[in-house]
Write a structure and sequence with these properties.
The protein is built from three helices and 42 strands. The chain is mainly β. It has a 22-stranded antiparallel beta barrel. Strands 4-9-10-7-8 form a five-stranded mixed beta sheet.
């Protein structure tokens, strides 16, 4: 059995397949049962290659694992793929993703972990979390800087969602489901040819609702509910045996409420007291993409990827105190439009393979926020407005040259230029309650250029053991502050965060293919770390509000381990583990107070241990029926959530046990499944919101135990 990406036309031959790292859930096979792990093919380096011949640390989650574990949002990767951190877990919250302790910062800014939907980048951290679509073929998590091939803002790595392209093969299925808390879902997929010509199409959709994970004790109602609908439609035109075009459109409508992080600290988990009721929220998001691929002969391939994505959050209303007496109530409106274009040319022969290309990204971002805050002196209302336009241009190339039969040298370089223009304004009520302007500035402009190199060596030590080492650099664009409260803060532009990573790894397949093990050692030199600082002195003026600045230097280092084993023809086991150390070596201390000296502190949201392990059992029956069982353990060691390493804000150790079971009837048409997440109903205070001047200290909790029963019918 081989797990590969869909192919619609021939491509130049790839290296011979090798072992996988994460074993997919095998479909029914006639006797004798398979006794070796399946292979996995990835496109992490923008070309198809077997995973253990790819000189990058990659965690892979395939479609069967996505289905049986109920992976629907970014946060579901935490504890499943080693090294991934997503502090904001609920899908309608803005997401800041970290990998190996690098990357967690303001979601409204450029991100250090690139998130891609079929090679189209998602800019910033809004409308990036929920991908509950049944046409996702696999998720690839690339660890370490990916600047050469994926550009600026992939400093810590990349998360790639790869969906199935349409084909002429006719298939369709529908799957309704029900669970707690009063939850229901419906998912479906259809694919097939359109007539007898070169056109084929597919449609995937998802609808999920529930009554909420939490309780409003004041109003005696459920809150923290989910109400989301998604779809993706694809059209594929096979112009010839060597050229095809895929047009895709997807959309999301999300009406889930905003009661996600407003549970008063010290109280019972997931209980709020705000009299305002469920926080109003409405998101509309989606995008278009057009991908053209053509083989030009002599091992050359041309690819064009065009993307347009947009979202609008209007409104978002949230009470951050969670108490019966209001403390801090926020209302905001966000809108973004992003256009991307990439042209790529690839060549491949027996001695070398190379990729060159150019990318252009244009992002327009509008943000408006109103706040009703209640200090001791009474109500203070403020309004902030931000408009930013960002353009990023990149020219890149990467090549591997064979040096002998078993060794290769890899070199890559990207030239980037990013420019941002911005306007900011802020108003606040005075003592008489009149809203007056504090400042308004426009015409702000900043730009940065740079080079992102990569150099590596790989060596096939033996047929079963592959070794590689590399050094790579990444950069994350900084730019201007959002919703700044002072003119100095608004006018202060930051430099890019920079990371230089040394990595060495080994990928092996042993015991006749029954065991696969990947190990990667890494060291990150982290410069120009971005952080929000208060009481900062800029041009001789003390700025009391938070200013995003390049605050310091840090390092992270550790080891990633991915293992898979076929313990018997019917039992599979997987393990994903990261051990991580982090430390600030320098950090700006504008006040000079000992309590603000963060040198020696751990980086926030950098868990020292992340672990996920799954045991799967498959039982075929003589009738043709099949039963599958699996149990997953996820563990994260306690981690600090702020640069000050405040003990009371520390996220605790987390342990989750998830179970899954399904039964496929003899006709192979019906599949009945049961998923249980957080089996022991553990509750953890994961993220604290503190605004001392207004007395706010609220907490975000993980989801409680959930059960979902589904029945799928394949036509």
């Amino acid at each position: 059995m081989t797990v590969t990406v869909s192919r619609r036309f021939p491509i130049p031959p790839a290296p011979p397949p090798c072992a996988s790292v994460l074993a997919p859930w095998a479909a029914a096979q006639p006797a004798p049962e398979p006794v070796a792990l399946p292979e996995i093919t990835v496109t992490a380096e923008r070309v198809e290659n077997v995973l253990r011949k790819t000189p990058v640390s990659v965690g892979v989650v395939d479609s069967k694992e996505i289905e049986r574990k109920g992976i629907t949002q970014l946060n579901d990767l935490v504890g499943l793929v080693a090294g991934v951190s997503v502090p904001n877990g609920f899908s309608n919250m803005p997401q800041a993703v970290g990998i190996r302790g690098v990357g967690v910062s303001s979601p409204a800014m450029a991100q250090a972990v690139g998130i891609y939907i079929d090679d189209v980048p998602l800019v910033r951290g809004y409308a990036t979390a929920l991908w509950d679509l049944p046409d996702i073929e696999r998720i690839e998590v690339l660890r370490g800087p990916q600047g050469t091939l994926y550009g600026q803002n992939a400093t810590a790595g990349a998360v790639r969602y790869i969906s199935i392209d349409p084909s002429a093969d006719t298939n369709a299925w529908l799957s309704p489901g029900a669970g707690n808390p009063d939850a229901s879902e419906a998912r479906g997929y259809a694919n097939g040819a359109l007539g007898d010509g070169p056109l084929s199409a597919s449609l995937a959709f998802s609808r999920k609702v529930n009554d909420g994970y939490a309780r409003n004790a004041t109003l005696d109602t459920d809150v923290n509910r989910i109400d989301a609908t998604q779809f993706r439609a694809k059209l594929r035109w096979a112009a010839s045996d060597t050229t095809h075009t895929v047009l895709a459109i997807d959309g999301l409508k999300d009406g889930s409420d905003t009661h996600t992080a407003n549970y008063p600290a010290g109280g019972p988990p997931r209980v709020t007291y705000t009299p305002a009721g469920p926080g109003a929220f409405e998101r509309q998001a989606g995008g278009l993409s057009l991908k053209v691929e053509s083989l030009l002969g002599n091992g050359l391939r041309f690819r064009s990827i065009t993307g347009y994505r947009a979202y609008k959050d209007d409104p978002t209303v949230a009470d951050f105190g969670g108490l019966a007496t209001p403390q801090y109530v926020m209302s905001q409106r966000i809108e973004q439009q992003a256009f991307t274009q990439e042209f790529q040319l690839q060549g491949r022969d027996t001695q070398r393979q190379w990729t060159v290309g150019t990318t252009f990204v244009s992002d327009r971002f509008d943000f408006e926020r109103g706040v009703d805050a209640y200090p001791a002196s009474g109500l203070v209302h403020s309004e902030a407005r931000t408009h930013q336009e960002t353009q990023d241009l990149g020219l890149y190339g990467q090549a591997r040259q064979a040096v002998g039969e078993r060794t290769g040298v890899i070199g890559g370089l990207r030239l980037y230029h990013t420019r941002q223009t911005a306007a900011n304004a802020f108003s606040r009520t005075n003592g008489s309650g009149t809203l007056v302007p504090v400042y308004a500035v426009d015409g702000l402009s900043t730009s940065k250029s740079g080079l992102l190199p990569r150099l590596g060596v790989d060596h096939q030590w033996s047929p079963d053991l592959y070794l590689y080492t590399s050094i790579a650099q990444g950069a994350k664009f900084g730019g201007y502050n959002r919703a700044a409260e002072s003119v100095i803060s608004a006018q202060t532009a930051t430099d890019p965060e920079r990371v230089t990573t040394w990595e060495g790894g080994a990928k092996g397949r042993f015991l006749g293919g029954r065991l696969a093990a990947n190990v990667a050692f890494f060291y990150n030199d982290y410069r120009d770390y971005l952080a929000g600082l208060t009481n900062l002195v800029i041009n001789g003026v003390t700025v009391p509000d938070a200013v995003l600045v390049n605050a310091g230097k840090a390092r992270t280092y550790g080891v990633d381990v991915d293992m898979a084993a076929k313990l018997s023809p019917q039992v599979d086991w997987t393990l994903s583990l990261e051990l991580l150390k982090s430390r600030f070596d320098e950090f700006a201390n504008p006040t000079g107070q000992a309590s603000r000296d963060y040198v020696g502190n751990d980086l926030p949201n950098a868990p020292p241990v992340t672990l996920g392990t799954t045991l799967s059992y498959r039982q075929p029956f003589a009738s043709g029926a099949e039963a599958n069982l699996d149990a997953t353990l996820q563990y994260l060691k306690s981690q600090y959530t702020d640069v000050a390493n405040t003990p009371e804000l520390k996220a605790p150790d987390q342990t989750y046990v998830n179970l899954g079971a399904n039964y496929i009837d003899p006709s192979r048409h019906w599949t009945f499944s049961l998923r249980v997440r957080n089996l022991f109903d553990r509750s953890y205070a994961l993220l604290h919101t503190r605004i001392p001047v207004f007395g706010v200290h609220a907490v975000y909790y993980n989801s409680p135990r959930t059960l979902m029963f589904t029945a799928r019918y394949d036509y």
